[in-house]
Fold YwbE family protein.
Amino acid sequence: MSVGNTRANIKIGAKVGIVLKKDQRSGKITHGVVKRILTKSSSHPHGIKVQLEDGQVGRVKEILS
């Protein structure tokens, strides 16, 4: 399981790369800072859903810090 799939690896304030709902087909990564963690379960096969500080919501694919 990769790092973006486990809730414990994601901290508020961390720089992450997410895939937005509209970009799921292309897999385009959007970078930002985590404001809120939206997924309640400890892991998710497609990545933990987060909200960035600019309000965008998507699933974490990479953790940068």
Notes: The longest strand covers residues 30-37. The two ends are 18 Å apart (CA to CA). The mean pLDDT is 94.
